[in-house]
Design brief:
Order of helices and strands: HEEEEEEEEEEHHHEEEEEEEE
Helix content: 10-25%
Largest sheet: 13 strands, antiparallel
Strand content: 35-45%
Number of strands: 18
Oligomer: single chain
């Protein structure tokens, strides 16, 4: 699957956050991604000790299904028999429903996820999440570009972008990749432009806490975008401190080419409230792929828990 050039998130993880998560007393849970037609793709399970994804990877369009009925699904796929009832949560409505699994299916493009068909059809059609036990979920607030809060965040994130860019060094992963993007990093280190040069692509906010997920980018002229990287993206999670200052929790910088276009790296689905934790369920986008990723997010750090591909080419 082609991921392209992406923002690497979760790189700045504090040891305290990891220890705190591992020490939390949480009940076991299985989490699934709910497609807009109501079909479920299990993406993660917590067994009382650790998070993992043990559901099979998507299969090729022409490959036969390994199982045809729920009863044929191996116990290892979920660490237990497949639950026949689930609680779904719709991203569009924020409502939960109790649903029944009716069979095994498949969904996707070139590579298709093995899905659990259900009796539920979201109305309106909407992606969402599903759980093998009732779970509190909050809808992530997406800020509008015209909102005052967006404009304040744009002002506050620009100097952080500039500070990181001024210190940026291109990744040395092979000679070709090391050379590609060298010019845009050099321009960024010397850049003295105003905050208006930073383009804010998206802003998402936790409805309960002053925590934000922000994606921004900055374009640089004079670089052939069809053969080199001519832009930088900067994004991740940020928080407001007691004085109102914007503080990066886990944010990073990456080069990309505007000629290739840039989908949002991540879009939130919802925030799970498990124990004292806030777990962001995110869709990670490649050019032709979608991966569901779970992040444990707090004011002290971000930890990637697990991920699962649900579609791709």
């Amino acid at each position: 699957m082609n991921r392209g050039v992406v923002i690497v998130l979760g790189a700045l993880v504090t040891a305290a956050a990891a220890v705190a998560l591992e020490g939390q007393a949480q009940a076991r849970i299985i989490i699934a991604y709910m497609a807009s037609d109501g079909e479920l793709v299990p993406v993660a399970r917590y067994d009382g000790f650790s998070w993992r994804n043990t559901w099979p990877e998507p299969i090729e369009r022409d490959a036969p299904l390994a199982v045809r009925t729920i009863g044929e699904i191996p116990r290892a796929w979920l660490g237990q028999p497949v639950p026949l009832t689930w609680t779904t949560w719709s991203q569009a409505t924020g409502k939960q429903h109790r649903v029944t699994v009716t069979g095994v299916d498949r969904d996707g493009s070139c590579f298709q996820a093995i899905t659990l068909a259900t009796s539920f059809k979201p109305g309106p059609p909407s992606d969402g999440l599903a759980f093998d036990r009732p779970t509190a979920v909050d809808k992530v607030v997406e800020l509008d570009e015209s909102s005052p809060e967006w404009q304040v965040l744009r002002r506050d994130v620009a100097p952080l972008f500039s500070t990181v860019a001024a210190k940026a060094v291109p990744p040395q992963v092979g000679r070709e990749q090391g050379e590609t993007g060298a010019r845009v990093y050099a321009l960024a280190r010397a850049d003295k432009s105003s905050a208006e040069a930073v383009i804010v692509e998206s802003v998402f906010r936790d409805p309960r806490f002053p925590l934000f997920f922000v994606e921004t980018q900055r374009h640089f002229g004079g670089i052939p975008a069809d053969t080199d990287y001519d832009a930088l993206s900067y994004g991740g999670w940020f928080r407001r401190d007691d004085a109102g200052a914007l503080i990066p929790i886990s944010a990073s910088l990456a080069a990309f080419s505007t000629a290739e276009g840039k989908l949002p790296r991540y879009t939130p689905i919802g925030i799970l409230r498990l124990g004292v934790g806030s777990i962001w369920a995110m869709s990670e986008w490649g050019k032709e792929s979608q991966t569901i990723v779970l992040f444990d997010v707090s004011a002290k750090g971000v930890r990637k828990l697990t991920s699962a591909d649900v579609s791709g080419c």
